[in-house]
Amino acid sequence: MEDEDQNVPDQEIDFCTLGMFIIDEIHYLPPTPPVFDILGGAGSFSALGARLFSPPPLSKTVSWIVDKGSDFPPSLTEQIESWQTSCLIREDESRLTTRGWNGYDSSQNRAFKYTTPKLRLTTDSLTPTLLLSKSFHLICSPTRCIDLVTAILRARKALNKDIEKPLFIWEPVPDLCLPTELLNCTNCLPYIDILSPNAHELAGFMGDVGSEIDPLTDEVSKTWVERACDQLLGSMPLQSYALVIRCGAQGCYVAKNGGRSRRPSMKRKNWKARRPANHARGGLTLDMDMTALFAGLLDESGDLVREEVVEMDPGIERWLPAYFGEGGGKRV
């Protein structure tokens, strides 16, 4: 394996994904022929999304990791290089590149399976440059998300104890978007800044699969999506985080819980609440919430300061349309 640091220069990184790189083969219903050696995986698509908003030279602030095996097609190397991102390429001739099989049925439901062993990315996969990224994209289970966030923060502090906390964007894995995982999902919310499932995955968490589709239009029900988001936002009212629900051609629904906002006290304007050791960003935890709840109501002596008002930020609720090319062609 070649020296990894030479792929990513010592520069500022705005976005880093821990999603895997996968070479896909896609099988459609006849008469459409199958296609092979397609660049895929959550790492590729999240990097592409960030790249669309980062033209050169900003494209170099987008980072992702590609594990090249002995069977890696040269055409994909050219495609990756054309994006002009800070892609960390790791070569290992002793293994095959992670590959996946995709098949579609008459309802456009996708089936997926790995055809070669997968190589999952961890905090140890990040070089010092990537570790200091301003944001991280994680695609994993709720419990692994918490583990990754805490491990990344710990490793960053080891490099620079004064570094600011990054943004964490969590995309849940479809297989674990289940009602039995809803509690784990809400427990994960204090650790992240953005949760981004698609509408079907959100319905899986809520135990309401099928209800996300409007039977009259056969499209995602905006009313259902908004109601489900209200329920999730209501589970952590004192914390600020955002939901970005992906709804295909209908675009996405963005809902943000404004969290707690407090008019600062003049005599305590330099007061700062200490972040608990578990790095959680809110929610009902034993070591933080009583302090957080009453911080704006107490003066230094511990007496109530009734003239200071604790109020809730109404947050944001907005639908964003999908983007289509001229003539309603390919969706970007």
TrEMBL record:
Membrane-crossing segments per the record: none
Lineage: Eukaryota, Fungi, Dikarya, Ascomycota, Pezizomycotina
Name the record gives this protein: Ribokinase-like protein
Gene3D superfamilies, sorted: 3.40.1190.20
InterPro entries named among the record's database cross-references: Ribokinase-like
PANTHER family: PROTEIN MAK32
